[in-house]
Amino acid sequence: MMKRKLTLAGIVAVTVFVWAAPGWCVTRVPRATLVSVVGTVKVQRRGQGAWLTVSTEAHRSLYGGDHVRTLQRGTATISIDG
Length: 82
Hints:
- This is FecR protein domain-containing protein.
- This protein is mainly beta.
- Helices cover about 5% and strands about 45% of the residues.
C-alpha cells in the first residue's frame, strides 16, 4: 500500500480522526504514525475517554478510531500506512 502523509496545523482547535475504512477498525494494529509534532498535539484513543498529550513514542502510534487534535500553533504530520 502507498504511504500517505497528512499535515495538520492548528490556529484554533482542529480535530481529525484516523479514517474508519475497511481494515482500519482492527484495534491494536497501528494504522498511522505521528511523524512530526510541534506544539501541543493530543490523541483520544478510539474516540473515547480523556485526550492524551503526545509526549512519548507510544502516543505517536495511531489505531483505528483514534482522534488527533492540534491546539493553537500546534502542527502534526501523520504518515498513514507507512
